Amino acid sequence: MRKYEVMYIINPNVEQENVQALVEKFNGVISNGGEVTKTNVIGKRRLAYEINKLRDGYFVLVHFNATTEVVNELDRIMKIADEVIRSLIVRDVA
Predict the structure, then answer these.
(1) Helices in the chain by DSSP H: which ranges?
(2) Helix axes 16-31, 68-80, angle to 10 degrees
């Protein structure tokens, strides 16, 4: 398993309870074949530029260890989730 980190931005119109549910859902996907080492819900922040006419979003950063299959599945699920407006998964080299 390799080290990865994912940063994703959740739509600001989603309620706080649903934000926590989404974080737990994505962490569950990672845990199904990998392990979450650190989850940091940064909170609601202003975006650098508009995305789909939105100026704010909930930022979440997750560090995890996983196989390539888990990373591909996480990426697929984040792309089809309507609540996620942007996501980026990178391999951690540190």
Answers:
(1) 16-31, 68-80
(2) 150
